[in-house]
Amino acid sequence: MREFAFTVTYERGADELMDVFIDHPGLSSRTVSCHATDDAMWRVDEVTGPEEALAAYDGVLSGVTRCSNLRGMGGCTLDWRYEVLEETPTSRLVYSQQSEGPGCRSIPYLVADHLGDGVLIHAEQHGNEYVWRILADDDAAVSAVYDELERNLREGLSIDFDHIERATNWSKHGVDDAGLSPTQRAALELAVEHGYYEQPRRNSLQEIAAMVDIPTSTLQYRLTSAERHVVESFVGDDTRFDPASLASAASQ
């Protein structure tokens, strides 16, 4: 199996829902599951971000009537429904289903139509970028997919084809180590690079945020989320706290 990847970039105003991600850098989404047939495409997306970003996302999502960045490329009207399966103040798990038809084909449909059965699709969305990763057979003819994608891009969208290589890191559905999103990983890398974890601390979060020109609250949210993912991954669900071990360590 091999992976090919491409990134669709959106200009502001090209898509109302994508504008929410552009306006809220701390907001990101990734696919949990995605399937497409001639008649419909359905998927589950995990969306995470600050409360105010998710409130804006909820408001736009409830009014979707045309193909948008999460559901297609054509911008045409569609039959579409969604349901929030799980909800916390900083996350949503969203099931959605849309109609498929000539003139309004989703990216998953175009990929499956050209590559056939057995294809797996992963997508991540943040800022103005929608990054797609496709797992397919070694002999899959991906050039036809690239041509079809370019022909179907509407105004305000551009596409860059990133790579074709041996499949890697699909055990975690394409997310980074410990389940990190790209924005969370970037926040951790910034913190390490600028000495946030050093003793004494070389730079504060406010100073690091100013260096990269993002709001301190955005950096704080991304870093806190990343730290939580890393800690939960390290500790695991089956870990049991032993007070005696803590007392023993403290006495040494």
From TrEMBL:
<feature type="domain" description="HTH bat-type">
    <location>
        <begin position="180"/>
        <end position="231"/>
    </location>
</feature>
<keyword id="KW-0804">Transcription</keyword>
<dbReference type="InterPro" id="IPR007050">
    <property type="entry name" value="HTH_bacterioopsin"/>
</dbReference>
<dbReference type="InterPro" id="IPR056529">
    <property type="entry name" value="HVO_2928_N"/>
</dbReference>
<protein>
    <recommendedName>
        <fullName>HTH DNA binding domain-containing protein</fullName>
    </recommendedName>
</protein>
<feature type="domain" description="HVO-2928 N-terminal">
    <location>
        <begin position="3"/>
        <end position="170"/>
    </location>
</feature>
<dbReference type="Pfam" id="PF24281">
    <property type="entry name" value="HVO_2928_N"/>
</dbReference>
<dbReference type="Pfam" id="PF04967">
    <property type="entry name" value="HTH_10"/>
</dbReference>
<keyword id="KW-0805">Transcription regulation</keyword>
